[in-house]
Design a protein that fits this description.
Residues 5-235 form the ABC transporter domain. 40% of the residues lie in helices and 25% in strands. It has two domains: 1-78 and 155-219, P-loop containing nucleotide triphosphate hydrolases (Rossmann fold, 3-Layer(aba) Sandwich); 88-153. A hairpin with a 2-residue loop joins strand 4 and strand 5. It is built from ten helices and ten strands. Helix 3 crosses helix 4 (109-122). By secondary structure, the chain is α/β, with parallel strands linked by helices.
Length: 257
């Protein structure tokens, strides 16, 4: 199976600060990749480099068999992205926003509007299609962002905390959608701090620590036993073992007995 994404010896530094060190991995088509790491581990920088928003200091990135450096604009048309903190045009209606995003990706206005309305209706928000996004709840805004990332039927998806604010029913739908997209050969980078969800939906785990790939493989291959959780694996790989002690200190400060 051909690799959809590969990074070879990618490094990034800002002045005297080394953010990424020799990051190398390859991802085949049809995989959900749980992309995890502590804050400051280099996840966001790696993602910005893959999306062409930052230039690497060293190394090569290949997407769908093509060099990112040589084919950036064409490759971005085949990628969908849900950022953790998105700047969304709140004065626009969902109709206007999704039509605009769809046209950026080469859809006609009519096609973008049709798909956007149909998808929002499936998520039980169709009656808000012509209302301003400023009136939407956090979960409704998140639904719009997810739909915007999928309108152009991309081959590669990057979703950062995609379930933020969604109600329980919508979470179930989106998790099912993830599996069906994977079965169609799509590749999804799924980044979240909710590690039990990452463990449940992912085919592979990619853990960044201190600007390097600390672990990459299936959860079964990475775990020590059937009883190991991704949270335990994460703590072991990152060396964080003080959670119990810090939790008790927190309670002590509160004076809870």
């Amino acid at each position: 199976m051909a690799d959809v994404l590969s990074l070879n010896h990618v490094a990034k530094h800002f002045e005297n600060h080394q953010v990424l060190r020799d990051v190398t991995f390859a991802i085949p088509a049809g995989q959900i990749v749980g992309y995890i790491g502590q804050n400051g581990a280099g996840k966001s920088t790696t993602l910005k480099i893959i999306l062409g928003l930052e230039e690497p200091s060293d190394g090569e990135i290949t997407i769908l068999g093509q060099s990112l450096h040589d084919q950036r604009d064409a490759l971005m048309q085949r990628i969908g992205y849900v950022p953790e903190n998105a700047d969304i045009f709140e004065a626009l209606t969902a109709n206007e926003y999704l039509s605009f995003i769809g046209q950026l990706y080469g859809l006609t206005e009519a096609d973008a509007r049709y798909k956007g309305q149909q998808l929002l209706t499936i998520l039980d928000n169709g009656d808000s299609f012509n209302k301003p996004i400023s009136s939407f709840s956090k979960g409704m805004r998140q639904s719009v962002l997810i739909i915007a990332s999928l309108l152009h039927n991309p081959d590669l998806l990057f979703w950062d905390e995609p379930l933020n604010g969604l109600d329980a029913n919508t979470v179930l739908i989106i998790e099912e959608v993830l599996g069906k997209l994977r079965d169609q050969g799509k590749t999804i980078f799924y980044s979240s701090h909710i590690l039990d969800v990452v463990q449940a939906v992912s085919d592979q785990i990619l853990l960044l620590h201190d600007g390097q790939v600390a672990a990459h493989g299936t959860f079964a291959d990475l775990s020590n036993s059937a009883d190991t959780t991704l949270q335990q694996l994460f703590n072991d790989m990152t060396g964080f073992k003080e959670h119990g002690e810090k939790a008790q200190a927190f309670i002590d400060v509160l004076g809870v007995s």
